[in-house]
């Protein structure tokens, strides 16, 4: 059923996109007079909010900038669409101003134990539809861990279509009692309407390495159907030592409004540095 739902969403999204004008993805909506972090490597700072404008500078990942103003101008590359932002930052003890594309900023960032963790979108690539008919534009994201401006490690993963990039969060959780895990990072993107999938990406931080777990997808339309996925960790009720459980539930109503629910689970064993399906 999961593959069927994805195919339906892809078709609906492609039809919808062909008829609508471009809007900025909500995950790239940043508040003025707030600090943000550069996500992509060597982000170009321009004199004006356009790709044809003169390049004034380039900034590395983890560079802190201040959002001065969101411009009306938009740029779309693949499925990533964002406004240009006027920013300022410190360089050689001076305040420098310029413009950057919003999709080059981190969706979220955190600091813990002397490390900086960034979550952001990296690119869009064309992929074949699950049913083999045509293709769609797949977004990719990553979580980075840095020490200053030095990249320590990076975990890459898919993160849904453009319609699923309306909201984004990035949090640090406990180690969930997994052996040798310092803590767990959780990157989430979701849409704003029924029938649009949301994605949870858990990433373990252990021995200065990032390990991405299988991605979770949740989607539903009122009480007509839903598909939900969640992890049960050792510290959760029902959890088991040195393992995590992926629980899936699918529900849909038939033509007589009767609910049909299917539940399943998978257990992944954790040895302190990697996991495998039991």
From TrEMBL:
InterPro entries: SH3-like_bac-type
Signal peptide: 1-17
Keywords from the UniProt entry: Signal
Cited PROSITE patterns: SH3B (PS51781)
Gene3D superfamilies to which the protein is assigned, alphabetical: SH3 Domains
Limits of the SH3b domain: 31-109
Name of the featured protein: SH3 domain-containing protein
